[in-house]
Amino acid sequence: MASRQAELSISENSRIPPIALPLGDVLSGPYVDQLPAISKFLDGWQTVLSMAGVGSGGSFNFDEIWEADEAQVAVEVLVNPKPVMRLENFDGDGRPGPIEALLFRSCSFGHASLTYCAKIGFEYTNDPIWRYRSKSYEPLDVRAKVEDLEEYGFEQGEGSGVALLLHPQSLKMDRQSSSD
Q1: Going by C-beta distance under 8 Å and a sequence separation of 6 or more, which residues neighbour residue 82?
Q2: Is residue 115 within 8 Å of 106, Cβ to Cβ?
Q3: What number of CA atoms fall less than 13 Å from residue 32's CA on the CB side?
Q4: What pLDDT sits at residue 91?
Q5: Where are the beta strands (DSSP E) in 19-131?
Q6: Strands 7-10, 99-109: parallel, antiparallel or unpaired by DSSP?
Q7: Which of 26, 33, 107, 177 suits a disulfide with 70, CB 3.0-4.6 Å?
């Protein structure tokens, strides 16, 4: 897709073998430059849904992709081997050195909802503003959306032995955050 060439693939139908048909024209139109990122997100979301045992929720429009920040965070944390996203600027109890914390959240996209938990490894920085930055993400649990997210977080903390919990209401997404 990045080369603006495409192929139509049809698979996962037990009655016919998989086929791939090259499309003859160069792709054009809105979102063409963003198709690789869109494809990566949608593939990742499908993987996350499978991890949770949740089926695809149905159709959606492209505008919903741009509004799916929480689902995009879930894909980054749970399936991206080298996440671009990072968490910054929590105090870490004022102690220099690496810290582990649990991130637990619920999200929805395309009429499908889930809850997840991941262990986040933070490293201490010399930056006076951003004292800690996330360095690693380890998925611990993914399931259908839970009723009581706070209870879920406490259960995950007890089960994993990680005492520091990042409550979802205390986190804010900042797409304009500075980079290294």
Answers
A1: none
A2: yes
A3: 10
A4: 67
A5: 19-22, 99-109, 112-124
A6: unpaired
A7: 107
**Mean per-residue pLDDT, 31-59:** 87
Distance CA 10, CA 14 (A): 11
Neighbouring C-beta atoms of residue 82, cutoff 10 Å: 6
CA dihedral 81, 82, 84, 85 (to 10 degrees): 60
- Other Cβ atoms less than 10 A from the Cβ of 149: the count is 16
Q: What is the mean pLDDT of residues 144-166?
A: 95
Q: How far apart are CA 101 and CA 164, in angstroms?
A: 5
pLDDT of amino acid 180? 46
DSSP bridge partners of 100:
121
Instruction: Output phi, psi for 66, to 5 deg.
Output: -70, -25
Helices marked H in 13-116 — which ranges? 35-52, 62-66, 69-79
What are the backbone angles phi and psi of residue 144, rounded to the nearest 5°?
-55, 150
Compute the distance between CA of residue 150 and CA of residue 106 in angstroms, rounded to an integer: 11
Alpha-carbon span 26 to 6, nearest angstrom: 8
Q: Over the stretch 87-113, which tens digit does the pLDDT of each residue have?
A: 876 666 666 678 899 999 999 999 999
**pLDDT higher than threshold 80 for residue 25:** no
